[in-house]
Design goal:
Blueprint: E1 8-11, H1 28-37, E2 42-43, H2 57-71, E3 78-80, H3 86-98, E4 103-107, H4 116-129, E5 135-139, H5 141-144, H6 150-159, E6 163-168, H7 173-179, E7 188-191, H8 197-202, E8 207-209, H9 217-228, H10 232-252, H11 255-264, H12 281-293
Parallel strand pairs: 1-2, 1-8, 3-4, 4-5, 5-6, 6-7, 7-8
Helix pairs in contact: 1-2, 2-3, 3-4, 9-10, 10-12
């Protein structure tokens, strides 16, 4: 099996919803077009930014298929298929393969605390159930309560050729740097925290999986392009801008603001699913004003 690592910015896309909270597959294509036009290198549906755990398995399958159709081969699609049980993880991953995803990404199960042996059995069962499909590991211990150790990552990458990469949102750069040298450079290392994009890329990591790239793709792609061009001063400037913009968005409510900002940019992706709460209009207006004051280069805001 061969798999080409993604280099650039991967967007964990938000999931468009109708006013009643149902998924809105028809709104995925305009969002994908918007991102591809702005230089995004990969599309990643149903992650944390995509509210993945808030959807039923049937909804997740619908979203995965609609996203792959919308992308239409223009960029790689990595579908997040992690679930709280091993059986559901395998079912969602098989579906992603069947509908044409380029790869899947599997977060550690959440809620129950699992020791390393249990995590290893879980991942080995998934990899052995899909022996010819590329699967990324996804480490987000702040939300799952379960950490993928560097040793576990190394063992899985060593034993399974189709363990093709790591999306790490733990902030542990040491693990990422160690993983960057796995499989003679064929192991795709993707930094999660947006405030560490420059740090990770400057040390040789392959990609950023950036939630902010939904609403601010020009800024995040600009960081990657500046690093790729060897223009460190420009990369630092853009990373500082992203940090300032990210603080504004976080203070205004985080994830709901991504969708609000996309609406302000002309993309109707709806609101967030309960129990997440929408951002009040006054908060959205204040956030937009603050972003303009930061001179973030977004002509349509």
């Amino acid at each position: 099996m061969t798999y080409k690592p993604i280099r650039g910015v991967i967007t964990p896309i938000v999931t468009p919803l109708k006013p009643n909270g149902d998924i809105n597959p028809a709104a995925i294509t305009p969002l994908v077009d918007f991102l591809i036009d702005r230089g995004i290198a990969g599309i990643y549906p149903l992650g944390s930014t995509g509210e993945g755990p808030l959807f039923t398995a049937a909804e997740r399958k619908t979203i995965a298929a609609a996203t792959i159709d919308a992308v239409a081969g223009r960029r790689p699609v990595i579908v997040h298929t992690g679930a709280i049980t091993t059986a559901e993880t395998i079912d969602l991953t098989r579906h992603a393969q069947a509908v044409g995803a380029d790869a899947a990404s599997v977060i550690a199960p959440w809620y129950f605390r699992l020791d390393e042996d249990a995590l290893e059995v879980h991942y080995r069962t998934v990899y052995e159930a899909l022996p010819d499909f590329p699967i990324y590991l996804y480490n987000l211990p702040a939300l799952t309560g379960n950490t993928l150790s560097a040793a576990l990552i190394m063992r899985l990458a060593r034993d399974y050729e189709h363990c093709v990469g790591l999306k790490d949102s733990s902030g542990d750069l040491q693990t990422m740097f160690a993983a960057n040298h796995l499989s003679e450079g064929r192991f795709n290392t993707c930094i999660g925290p947006d405030m560490l994009i420059l740090a990770g890329l400057s040390m040789g990591l392959d990609a950023s999986v950036s939630g902010h790239s939904n609403a601010l793709p020009e800024l995040v792609v600009g960081i990657y392009n500046a690093v790729a061009a060897g223009d460190l001063p420009a990369a630092r400037t853009r990373q500082r801008q992203l940090k300032a913009a990210g603080e504004v968005i976080a203070n205004a409510g985080g994830l709901p603001l991504f969708k609000a900002l996309l609406r302000a940019r002309g993309l109707d992706v709806g609101d967030v699913r309960a129990p997440l709460q929408s951002a009040p209009e006054a908060t959205v207006r204040a956030c937009l004003a603050q972003l303009r004051a930061l001179k973030v280069d977004l002509s349509s805001l």
